[in-house]
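Re-running the complex after MR caught last week's input typo. The corrected sequence lines follow. Everything else is unchanged.
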Amino acid sequence: MFRNFYTFCRNIFRKACVEDELDEEIGSYVELMAAEKMRSGMARDDAMREARRELGGFEQVKEGVRDIRIGVHIDRLVQDIRYAIRALTKNLAFSVVALLTLALGIGANTTIFTVVNGVLLKPLPYPEPDRLLMLWETQLHDDALQTVAPANFFDWREQSHSFDKMAAIDPYPDFILNASGGPQRLTGAAVSSDFFSLLGVRMALGRNFLADEDRPGQNHVVVLSHTTWLQYLGGRPDIIGKPLALNGADYMVVGVLPREFSFVSEASDFPSRKHFDLWTPLALASPPPPWQRGTHPLSVFARLKPGVSLTQAQADIDGVANNLQRLYPANDKERGIKAVSLSQHVVANVRTALFTLAAAVGLVLLLACANLANLLLTRATARQKEMALRVALGASQRRLAQQLITESMVLVMLGGLLGLCLAYAGVPAMLRHLPADLPRRSEIVVDGRVLAFTGMLSLATGFLFGLLPLFQSQPMSANDSLKQGGRSVAFGQSGLRSALIVGQVAIALVLLVGAGLMSKSFWTLLQVSPGFQTERILTARLSLPPQYLNGYAFGTGKHRRISAFQRELLERLDSIPGVELAAFTAYLPLGGTNNSWAIDIEGRPANPPGVFNTTNYRPVSAGYFETIGIPVERGRGFNPTDDEDHPLVVIINESMARTFWKQQDPVGQRLRFDEPQWRTIVGVVGDVHHKGLGTQPEPEMYIPYGQIPNVEARPTIVLRTAMEPTQVTGALRQAVSEVDANVPLDQIESMNQIVSVSVGQSRFRTAVLLIFALLALFVASVGLYGVMSYLVSQRVREFGIRMAVGASRGNVLRLVLGKAAKLVSIGICLGLGGATLLTRLIASLLYNTTPFDPVTLGSVSLLLTSVALLASYIPARRAAGADPMVSLRYE
Amino acid sequence: MATPQSDLLQGTLDLLILKSLALEPLHGMGISRRIAQITNGTFEVKAGSLFPALHRMEQAGWLMSSWGESETKRRAKFYRLTKPGKSQLRTEAERWERISLAIASALRAT
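Corrected-run output:
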């Protein structure tokens, strides 16, 4: 063992000495052999020559000895790497181009992978995330997931057997904290006491909610997020057990969440609530009163018992659903329950888009590899003589292959390293441009998995283009190659090069088609008229303290104090110069919030049990339609007199008129909610894209603020301005604080901003795909240019002869361009085939655009053809412009 | 007559080298000549297989080398058996005899 180690060290570190000894040993062998021959009468010179011949090659013998040396592999590797670096620095232009190509390709792939990894691949940041589910209500006739009635949640928890824990969250309660900088609205959530233990979260300070605190009247306790604790309470460790005044009442702080806790709020279909500042117990009455089966505010989470599958759990809750359908037909006759894996649900909306981008950037790298392979082929041709010389000097074919692979690997490892640096810079830049509603943003970091990915990617890349030059050259004898003196021996390569070009054109076309379709879809989306005015509109959210709710209890109440506040604020706003109109709404279009209610229509037979005419409703103030620019199509808009003291009125949108009244005139008809009084329809207004520009408008009705049965304490104020809307922000703040200094104002945005954010995902994927496609176009045309230049240089002599015997420049030009056109058109045909197969997968990302859109397919094919022909035109013109005499003497 | 080298069974060359060194230390040329002599010219070992084998066996610890002077007064590398080399020669020789007996009897069988 020790002996081997000694030999190893000697072989590696005293190499010169070992080599000298080997030289001398073999030298003496030859001389001894010659001496023997001289004894049998040969002349000295002849004897030496004969002895050398019998030896069979000095270097080959040495190489044979080196092969068996301990540590030979490491020694070879070091030698190869040193040689590779020397070869790369000698050919600097090649190396720089190759390195940049690699760095860009690998960097872009690493950046996209970092996003895909953080959002899609990493397990959710909770223990045993595979066991986490969400449970949703469904209607038996469709699969849409709906939030859950408190009474149903109660029964699910009692009657199911597949779950360790089940917890519910109501994501909408807000709290006003009188912080030092003025009143501050905090985003709250009410959760059942099992919520944090279900997720597996341990408090950084204090404790979780107790079961006893999850009851009406006992629930004035609060858990703070780490940020809230630092920002508003100075991070004091003695905060536990201390009172905190929220909404004018005392709450006791019982716990502080760890800094790294992030709640996947995207999971719960409340995109407007991106983070939560504090948490209180849900405190449902037990057993819940019957009306809590008719309202559906909750999102329900569950943790599977170990060993129970999703299918088993679904069967279990199907049984529960059957039971509830029988017991409560009025509410639940048509209702099912659906279990969805939490990790699937969180990313359901972005999975396709992210995988599309990952595939696109992968294709770009593939294109880059093809270019590198081309470069290496060209270089291999130029180095054929060098290789032949090395064979003659005793290198085996295998050894040469090793050397070439080492060179590619050195190149690709450097490229990978550079790419990683690019990714480190690129990820933060990317994060700034990611759409605001992308789930799990905070988990997008360069971590071990990303590093491993980059490593693997680099290795794969190195093999992919590094091995290619080996396939093309039939092992030729050293003799042949040396005789030819390194002249054009590589005619056989043009087949491989042509194949590379066809592949590149095809891949570039697929990417261009994808980007073209996305762009068309995005453009179509932007052309959708939202149904309201977006220019010169400012919106801001107010949070009214609880005293405005005036004994608020669910299902009752008139809200004179809210109406009075609104009237007073509107009056003040009227006097601000630059504010043309002002009004309130509870749910702003594209704002991410919504509410719906079941209605009865006068004179129509009652619905069968369990079937509801569910309709969205929007509490708005007088003047809302004029302010935001929704046209009144029939009847009238709201007047200031449509208040608590006047007859109940309602205005419906066109979709609702179509759905419930068909050709009839709805104005003058009456409808009601779950209450005795009828409301008269006084007008019909235009449809609004409330949930998104790409979503069909739904039936909606508008109700005056003073006449709503339950209240939203967070009205949004909408201002129409005479100038750039953000310029009146200061005046708005001033006016609000003059009316009531305790009312926080936040989410101040212009309507243009809101629209822009709402199409963020579509814009992001379109932009990224477009960048990749243009990159692909560029890379492919550089590749085409390179190959055509090479082919032209190989045929210079032929062109010379052609022109010498009478071919015109035009003939030669046509000849070269014809060759290029043939390759490009084969590539485009293949690409179109590939595109029709692949674009089907992104059909769900396209708005009003078919994946086979002929205009897009046609125009990108045309674009690619023209760019490709332009790229081949330059070498073609060079071929045609050459002097035949010079061409003939070229070699 | 000289046998093509590829016919040399793996291990045979090692055994012949060990045997050739059993009497006295020899240099490479000497080993080659001794093998030809003791096999009555059946085996002629070329430098291309001899030197890698010598270096491999030295690394294995069966041989030791030192520089000395040849019969023509030229500096040459001499190899001699080490203790492990001698025992290796014994085991290899026994193994070879077993195999050759077995093969001989196999060939005689009808």
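None of the earlier attempt is carried over here. Chain A touches chain B through 27 residues (CB under 8 Å). DSSP finds 28 helices and 23 strands in chain A.
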